[in-house]
Write a structure and sequence with these properties.
The protein is mainly α and 117 residues long. The chain contains five helices and two strands.
Length: 117
């Protein structure tokens, strides 16, 4: 089983603890965990999860972190980015890339159902 750390989230967007404190990232991890639980109707623990769940939670928390850094907002899987602070965000991957990765991971976690109607 895998575990998501605050450093995993910061590594995705290449920021330090000076830009986003541990306590803030931990809240983002919990929000991402709950969002995944709602999406797949399964209880998740970000400190003891599958690799795919870890990746989803990490990327979603990273998106939340980008929103936090820019003054934007995030609710579930909906995001808005505010005015960007170039000094902090110059190394951050584009939000669209993170969103596409998030959607790909979620599709893999949910799987495709081939059944009869």
């Amino acid at each position: 089983m895998a575990s998501v750390s605050v450093d995993d989230v910061r590594d995705v967007i290449r920021v330090s603890s000076a830009e986003i404190p541990d306590a803030k990232v931990t809240k983002m991890l919990k929000r991402a965990e709950v969002t995944l639980e709602l999406e797949i109707d399964k209880e998740i623990d970000y400190s003891n999860c599958t690799d795919a769940e870890k990746e989803f939670i990490t990327v979603l928390a990273a998106i939340y972190a980008v929103c936090y850094l820019t003054g934007g907002s995030a609710v579930g899987l909906s995001f808005s980015v505010g005015g960007q602070n170039v000094s902090v965000l110059s190394k951050v991957p584009p939000l669209e890339v993170l969103q596409a990765q998030l959607e790909r991971i979620l599709s893999g976690i949910k799987g495709v159902y081939f059944g009869r109607v």
